[in-house]
Amino acid sequence: MDKPEILNLYKQMLLLREFELAAQVACRSGETPGFLHLYIGQEATAVGICAHLSKKDWVTSTHRGHGHALAKGMDPKILMAELYGKQDGCCGGRGGTMHLYDREVGLFGTNGLVGGGDSICSWSWLGSTAQEDTPSRCSIFWRWCSQSCRFS
Q1: Which domains does the chain have, with CATH numbers?
Q2: Tens digit of pLDDT for each residue in 82-114?
């Protein structure tokens, strides 16, 4: 990697961190409804994975999906609007912090289940293999998910 690429990845990680800190302040002050699962400290994972994906590639995520949404290319204003429950959010303000979706950037959904995205990811790939140009699928989950019966 050359220096401009490395700086771009660093800027993306910084964006994720600043977004999460702003979301934390909004949640603690009672400005946003519901619960908040932060992605602080995990920015390099989302940015590193999504740097190798195109917009047509799909990602599924878990309850800590803000970082994945931003790293995949979701507009921070649209994501923050979703956290505030605003109609301008990616799901019209109905998804909140754990149920994000943005087909335009390839975010096929986040959900409240730690390993919920892997089945969605697998079945969506199987359902589209007949297409000529099948995009890649990436399910991002936490290590506790790997101890479930799906992987045992």
Answers
A1: 3-147 (3.40.50.970)
A2: 999 999 999 999 998 889 999 899 888 888 766
How far apart are alpha carbons 34 and 89 in whole angstroms? 15
pTM of the model: 0.84
- Cα atoms found within 13 Å of the Cα of residue 128, Cβ hemisphere only: 15
Give the DSSP H or E segment for 59: strand 58-61
Work out the number of other CB atoms within 10 angstroms of the CB of residue 55: 11
- CA 138, CA 121: separation in Å to the nearest integer? 7
Amino acid sitting at position 143: R
Bridge partners (DSSP) of residue 58 are 137
CA angle centred on 15, ends 87 and 23, rounded to 5°: 50
